[in-house]
Amino acid sequence: MPNPDPTQQYFEQTKALYGNELFVRDEKLDIIMEDGSLGPKSLSEYSFQISECMKCGLGEKRDKFVFGVGDPNANLLLIGEAPGEQEDIHGEPFVGRAGKLLDKILTAIDRSRGDDVYICNVLKCRPPNNRDPLPSEVEQCESYLHMQIKLIQPKLIVALGRVAGKTLLGLDVQLKEMRNETYEYTGIPLRVTYHPAALLRNSNFKAAAWDDFKWIRSFLEKN
Ligand code: SF4
């Protein structure tokens, strides 16, 4: 007698248990690496795998590796350029005054860094004196961001600040020229808005930033 078809067997067992209703498990697909091996199953597993990275010179200088923080199933992924001094000390992105302002903005769009939002940086280690990331550092580190995006599968990516926007989009223009456009990064819609530190430096930017976040809230409600 031929072996029963496993798919048919599964449906017959499901039908016996649940009747004619079809249940589909809401799970993310496995990530297959270029060499055919199975990729990390979770952000925490991935963070553990790469946390000792020394691929570029920033590894030697860091105090803490700053992987990211938030909801692993977030629809909204916020990306800054790189950790600053406080982030390097605490091992978490967007802490300090700028982080507190970002938290207030997220509350205003009915979210928080643990609720439908994930926050990380392009680089996971702090550049000295908070200088802009070098192209060689981005080249070494960007694959980590790509894997984070695969694991999170956000609906929208928002680059915080001109340097993050420039790094992700390869566009060397002023921030105001990057705003109000929807781009794509790794196949996911991407917008650019002000870095919260810029809002602390110049409150004239706050109205435009609030417009951006209202757009973000509306996009997430519709998609
Ligand atoms: S910045 Fe990125 S590539 Fe460079 S050492 Fe840190 S984790 Fe590795």
Layout of strands and helices, then pairs:
Blueprint: H1 6-18, H2 43-50, H3 58-61, E1 69-70, E2 76-80, H4 85-90, H5 96-108, E3 117-121, H6 135-152, E4 156-160, H7 162-169, H8 175-178, E5 183-185, E6 188-193, H9 196-201, H10 206-222
Parallel strand pairs: 2-3, 2-4, 4-6
Antiparallel strand pairs: 1-3, 5-6
Bound molecules: iron/sulfur cluster.
Iron/sulfur cluster binds next to helix 3 and helix 6.
Walk me through this protein's architecture:
A 6-stranded mixed beta sheet has the order 1-3-2-4-6-5, sandwiched between helices. It has helices at residues 6-18, 43-50, 58-61, 85-90, 96-108, 135-152, 162-169, 175-178, 196-201, 206-222; strands at residues 69-70, 76-80, 117-121, 156-160, 183-185, 188-193. With 223 residues, the chain is an alpha/beta fold. 43% of the residues lie in helices and 12% in strands. The protein is globular, with a radius of gyration of 20 Å. It is built from 10 helices and 6 strands. It has one domain (30-222): Uracil-DNA glycosylase-like domain (Uracil-DNA Glycosylase, subunit E, 3-Layer(aba) Sandwich). Bound molecules: iron/sulfur cluster (SF4). Iron/sulfur cluster is lined by residues 53-56, 58-59, 123-125, 137, 140-141. Iron/sulfur cluster binds at residues 53-56, 58-59, 123-125, 137, 140-141.
CATH class category: Alpha Beta
CATH topology: Uracil-DNA Glycosylase, subunit E
- Main β-sheet: number of strands, strand sense, barrel status? 6 strands, mixed
Mean pLDDT: 91
Distance between the termini: 49 Å
Which structural class should the secondary elements be placed in? alpha/beta
Bound molecules: iron/sulfur cluster
- Total DSSP helices: 10
- Unreliable spans are 22-26
CATH architecture term: 3-Layer(aba) Sandwich
| Dominant shape | globular
Number of domain modules: 1
Strand content: 5-15%
Percent of residues in helices comes to 40-55%
Query: CATH H-level name... which superfamily?
Result: Uracil-DNA glycosylase-like domain
